[in-house]
């Protein structure tokens, strides 16, 4: 943008500049208004040159980079443009670096040398460069004055400034070096309006001098930050070190998988795809005529498996890892002597039944949140009690009291983890790295206090086992409002965070709020998704943090810096604006060493999620996730301004005529489609005119029209306070609203009828329509153009508990699969939903795979039954194998094995975890996925809701005793049947081969290998059925009797002592007939 020769001056840090014109009054504009571009590395504005042109670091792609970042990249980085990787050329005024000798450009710096330089001199020079932007001139040259062409004796030298002439002849020099060239002649003074006093322009006044002193102080602080890693006896030998070096850098970076690992992996995928095509070519062209039904069934199943493999494999094409810089986050947002600039975070904890979800576990989760390493005034914890249980309320009250002791203890000694149950039971040297002399004494006292706290909670649980006939009553004799779980009012209690409640050291504590939404008969409350949406609205009214963290009640914070890890992505000025959520992997405690039923799910979290992170981000898994509130409100992701397209001036006119009509038609259709989308879309982008933190009344929300206000209320509901908070991108609550008023609004937004005729659960918040609301919610965000991030810190951020016995594990998988079936049969199915939005194709493949996998149970069960059928009938699914077919089969199995090995290498997964995952894929597919498929079809198509109950049959004491608990459930029938028929098939096949001789062993090998493949995959299921080795459940005895009966009947049919041609009758030689 051309400034018309007017002076651009002011404070860069304050983002305030003054344009001085001889014929106009002074105008204050931000630099971004003038240039329109910001640095893509540090987020600062890019300054203008003398003639109004932007500073351009790269002449190839013009990637926006400011002068300090350009010089830092040349000196400390790889000396190349971040976008096009072209080596930066030296711009006039910049110091030389290694490699510049090859260039023909001469150095214009008289003082460019390798000597030592005082950092204070660097700060003074940088200050001069900021004030004299675009000026050339020696320090001793004459400086023109801001007078009407004459020097005023009353003005001092420290009040002098520079008037830029319209043309200086200094080229595109925008960021002058601290040391200028003395060869340039001084500029001539330019006239100003003589009637105005110079103080009106901000120069020569006391305020101007004070601002300059503050500016110098800030530069000195920045230089001090740069030297924080340097020892006191060392000196900085770099005279051109930019200000705030560390704080200006990105807060995270991508770590691509090494090419030596990922390139062979990609090549093998393509080879496996080619082998797969040759395999199906052979299978289809070589049918088995005497077993056509078996052959056709096997081919159909194999084609389905191939499609499923493609949907699962190709989203792993771009796996990446990420690294965060917590020190840079502190340097940027936590300056010494200033309030913390970190964004507030609201933490959601959800629980339902305290008898199934022990209050002690929930209390540990809450304590780990309250003790997190984050500014206390920036954290608010909301606990949703969807069961309205007085037990949860009382346990949370005791937890708040114990937190007054626990939180200062954690922060004083920096202990990890900060959940007391897991801290005191961990088997490690708790004195490691502890140097405080009172640590042992205070730890013993704290452990004693925690044991007393546990006794209190256990006493509450014991009391709650028997509910009084008249219901529970509170301490003041008032009946507990939640005595009727299905019919009770909304309840909110602020335990911590209000005035007067502090910890034992007198410090402030994070806010802790108990929430139980209203429930009435006749309303659909939408289970967990509805509870989470209620927490969104309550938190928006009371604290309205721009970021949200949700965890399950049994997932405690294992890494106290977990929120800081997420903020490295969310608050990154370069890439954070498009991040909708940061997902952490799930890690679990209390799982046996062998992980028999793949509870850790390591393959999914360490391989699949890394692959998705390289595309558009991981899927949301329901817990351990930090959200951007604006993304949950259904707003579209910010879009980058596209550069202007190429014109067709270089093409012949006849080409423009023939292509113009078609292009014009496409543009018109696109505009109509955009207008229609904007009209019918629920995304009401109206945040530009809303001042952050301002009070917005119902009648003038940001001075919008009444129609827009009605749209906002139709979208968000009839709460004026919530509607006002919903359009505040940076969060905040109304300043003049009293706590009583806010609590009344909070009660309103959790009423059971608040969501009626709104877009909650459809476009806003957690999406309804599936028991796995997490997949739907993340899918909708990605469709709006947002991207997510997968964060894997070295110390796991969160840890939880997982069901480790077979029956509970199968029911957990059943719930997940049922949710996928519901999504598949809904309008939000990724196969046909979300086209034209921001969802990338490989990301769509992943979402399709996440809703299609339960259907794989049908071909899987059929395919696992084929070996037994082949062994019992003597047929096989393939004809006589030729050499070509043998090579194909060997290549197929070899490619599967090598692909798994390479995935284990770049994913960091052990072979045990990979093999357990393969085994449980068969076990879950043959049981939970099948039942989920039929249950989902009955629920969606027929409206019949069926549930499978679990009955505990045995229990044990000792380590991992839950692993050996046997609970009979109908989910165990299909895999048990597959296991038995394949064992029977092996017995029959081997018996038949023994009776028929040596020639029958060759054809038996393929069938036998097929059956053993099924049995080996079902081996963990068999161990789960048997329980401990020293006991045999009754159900196993019943199955054994049934199995023996079947084997007896089959033995009569096979009978190896009878020849195939029938019994050979010989005359005994006795005259029996006489």
CATH class of the domain at 326-638 and 760-802: Alpha Beta
CATH third-level topology of the domain at 326-638 and 760-802: Spore Coat Polysaccharide Biosynthesis Protein SpsA, Chain A
- In CATH, the architecture of the domain at 326-638 and 760-802 is Alpha-Beta Complex
Helix content: 40-55%
Low-confidence stretches: 1-35, 103-199, 225-244, 646-664, 669-702, 948-958, 1056-1060
Characterize the main sheet.
Answer: 8 strands, mixed
Number of helices: 30
Principal-axis shape equals globular
The chain-level mean pLDDT equals 74
Provide the spatial order of strands within the biggest beta sheet.
Answer: 8-9-7-6-10-14-12-15
How would the blueprint of this fold be written?
Blueprint: E1 7-11, E2 16-20, E3 27-29, H1 31-35, H2 67-75, H3 119-131, H4 206-226, E4 252-256, H5 259-285, H6 292-313, E5 320-324, H7 326-333, E6 345-351, H8 359-370, E7 379-385, H9 390-413, H10 420-425, H11 439-464, E8 491-496, E9 511-516, H12 527-542, E10 547-552, E11 556-557, H13 562-570, E12 579-583, E13 587-589, H14 602-613, E14 625-628, H15 629-632, H16 653-680, H17 706-716, H18 720-726, H19 739-749, H20 773-783, E15 787-790, E16 798-801, H21 806-824, H22 841-852, H23 857-873, H24 883-907, H25 911-926, H26 928-942, E17 951-952, E18 967-968, H27 973-996, H28 1001-1017, H29 1019-1026, H30 1034-1054
Parallel strand pairs: 6-7, 6-10, 7-9, 12-15, 13-16
Antiparallel strand pairs: 1-2, 2-3, 4-5, 8-9, 10-14, 11-16, 12-14, 17-18
Helix pairs in contact: 3-4, 5-6, 5-24, 6-23, 8-9, 9-11, 12-19, 14-24, 21-26, 23-25, 23-27, 23-28, 27-28, 27-30
């Amino acid at each position: 943008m051309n400034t018309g020769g007017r002076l651009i001056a002011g404070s860069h840090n304050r983002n305030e500049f003054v344009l001085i014109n001889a014929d106009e009054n002074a105008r204050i504009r931000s630099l971004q208004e003038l240039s329109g571009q910001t640095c893509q590395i540090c987020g600062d504005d890019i300054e203008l040159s003398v003639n109004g042109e932007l500073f351009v670091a790269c002449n190839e792609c013009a990637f926006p980079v400011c002068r300090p970042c350009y010089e830092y990249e040349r000196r400390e980085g790889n000396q190349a443009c971040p976008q096009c990787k072209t080596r930066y050329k030296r711009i006039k005024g910049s110091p030389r670096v290694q490699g510049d000798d090859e260039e023909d450009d001469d150095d214009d710096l008289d003082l460019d040398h390798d000597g030592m330089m005082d950092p204070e001199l660097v700060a003074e020079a940088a200050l001069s460069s900021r004030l004299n932007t675009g000026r050339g001139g020696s320090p001793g040259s004459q400086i023109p004055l801001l007078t009407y062409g004459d020097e005023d004796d009353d003005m001092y030298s420290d009040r002098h400034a520079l008037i830029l002439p319209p043309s200086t002849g200094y080229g595109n020099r925008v960021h002058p070096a601290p040391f200028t060239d003395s060869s340039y002649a001084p500029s001539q003074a330019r006239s100003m309006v003589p009637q105005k006093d110079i103080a009106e322009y901000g120069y020569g006044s006391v305020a101007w001098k004070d601002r300059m002193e503050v500016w110098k102080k800030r530069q000195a602080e920045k230089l001090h930050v740069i030297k924080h890693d340097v020892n006191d006896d060392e000196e900085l030998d770099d005279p051109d070190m930019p200000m705030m070096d560390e704080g200006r850098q990105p807060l995270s970076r991508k770590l691509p998988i090494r090419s030596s690992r990922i390139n062979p992996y990609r090549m093998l995928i393509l080879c496996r795809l080619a082998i797969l095509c040759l395999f199906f070519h052979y299978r289809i062209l070589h049918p088995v005529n005497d077993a056509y039904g078996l052959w056709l069934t096997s081919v159909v199943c194999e084609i389905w498996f191939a499609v499923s493999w493609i949907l699962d494999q190709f989203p792993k094409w771009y796996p990446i890892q990420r690294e965060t810089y917590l020190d840079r986050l502190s340097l940027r947002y936590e300056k010494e002597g200033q309030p913390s600039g970190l964004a507030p975070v609201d933490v959601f904890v959800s629980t339902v039944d305290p008898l199934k979800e022990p209050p002690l576990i929930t209390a540990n989760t809450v304590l780990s949140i309250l003790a997190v390493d984050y500014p206390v005034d920036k954290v608010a914890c909301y606990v949703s009690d969807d069961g309205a249980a007085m037990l949860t309320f009382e346990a949370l009250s005791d937890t708040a009291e114990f937190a007054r002791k626990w939180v200062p203890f954690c922060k004083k000694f920096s202990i990890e983890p900060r959940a007391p149950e897991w801290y005191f039971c961990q088997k490690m040297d708790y004195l490691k790295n502890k140097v405080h002399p009172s640590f042992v004494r205070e730890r013993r006292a704290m452990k004693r206090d925690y044991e007393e706290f546990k006794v209190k909670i256990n006493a509450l649980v014991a009391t709650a086992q028997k509910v009084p006939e008249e219901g529970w009553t509170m301490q003041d004799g008032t009946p507990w409002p939640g005595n009727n779980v299905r019919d009770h009012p909304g309840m909110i209690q602020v335990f911590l965070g209000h005035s007067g409640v502090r910890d034992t050291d007198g410090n402030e504590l994070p806010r802790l709020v108990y929430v139980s939404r209203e429930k009435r008969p006749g309303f659909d409350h939408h289970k967990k998704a509805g509870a989470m949406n209620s927490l969104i609205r309550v938190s928006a009214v009371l604290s309205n943090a721009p970021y949200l963290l949700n965890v399950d009640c049994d997932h405690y914070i294992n890494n106290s810096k977990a929120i800081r890890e997420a903020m490295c992505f969310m608050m990154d000025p370069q890439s954070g604006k498009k991040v909708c959520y940061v997902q952490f992997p799930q890690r679990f405690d209390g799982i046996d060493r062998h992980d028999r039923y793949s509870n850790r799910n390591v393959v999914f979290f360490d391989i699949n999620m890394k692959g998705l992170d390289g595309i558009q981000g991981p899927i949301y898994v329901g817990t351990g996730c930090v959200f951007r509130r604006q993304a949950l409100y259904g707003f579209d992701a910010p879009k980058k301004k596209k550069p202007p397209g190429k014109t067709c001036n270089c093409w012949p006119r006849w080409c423009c005529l023939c292509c113009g009509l078609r292009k014009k038609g496409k543009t018109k259709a696109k505009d109509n489609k955009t207008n229609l989308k904007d009209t019918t879309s629920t995304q009401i982008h109206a945040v530009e005119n809303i001042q952050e933190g301002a009070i917005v009344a119902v009648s003038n929300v940001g001075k919008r029209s009444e129609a827009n206000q009605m749209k906002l209320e139709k979208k968000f509901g009839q709460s004026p306070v919530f509607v006002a908070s919903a359009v505040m991108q940076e969060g905040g609550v109304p300043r003049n609203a009293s706590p009583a008023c806010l609590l009344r609004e909070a009660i309103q937004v959790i009423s059971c009828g608040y969501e009626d005729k709104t877009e909650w659960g459809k476009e806003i918040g957690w999406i309804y329509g599936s028991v796995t609301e997490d997949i739907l919610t993340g899918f909708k965000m990605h469709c709006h153009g947002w991207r997510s991030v997968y964060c894997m810190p070295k110390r796991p951020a969160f840890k939880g508990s997982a069901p480790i016995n077979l029956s509970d594990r199968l029911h957990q998988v059943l719930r997940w699969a049922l949710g996928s079936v519901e999504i598949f049969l809904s309008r939000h199915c990724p196969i046909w939903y979300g086209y034209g939005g921001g969802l990338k194709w490989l990301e769509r493949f992943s979402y399709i795979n996440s809703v299609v996998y339960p259907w794989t149970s049908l071909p899987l069960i059929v395919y696992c039954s084929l070996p037994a059928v082949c062994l019992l009938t003597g047929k096989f699914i393939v004809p006589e194998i030729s050499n070509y077919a043998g090579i194909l089969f060997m290549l197929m199995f070899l490619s599967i094995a090598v692909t798994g090995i390479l995935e284990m290498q770049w994913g960091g997964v052990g072979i045990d975890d990979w093999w357990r995952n393969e085994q449980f894929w068969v076990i879950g597919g043959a049981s939970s996925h099948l039942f989920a498929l039929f249950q989902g079809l009955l629920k969606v198509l027929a409206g019949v809701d069926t549930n499978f109950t679990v009955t505990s049959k045995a229990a044990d004491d000792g380590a991992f005793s839950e692993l050996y608990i046997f609970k009979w459930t109908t989910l165990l029938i299909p895999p048990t049947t597959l296991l038995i028929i394949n064992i029977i098939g092996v017995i029959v096949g081997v018996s038949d081969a023994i009776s028929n001789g040596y020639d029958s062993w060759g054809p038996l090998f393929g069938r036998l290998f097929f059956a053993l493949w099924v049995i080996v995959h079902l081996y963990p299921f068999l161990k789960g059925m048997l329980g401990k080795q020293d006991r045999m459940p009754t159900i196993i005895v019943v199955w054994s009797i049934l199995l023996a009966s079947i084997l007896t009947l089959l033995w009569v049919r096979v009978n190896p002592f009878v020849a195939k041609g029938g019994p050979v009758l010989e005359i005994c030689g006795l005259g029996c007939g006489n």
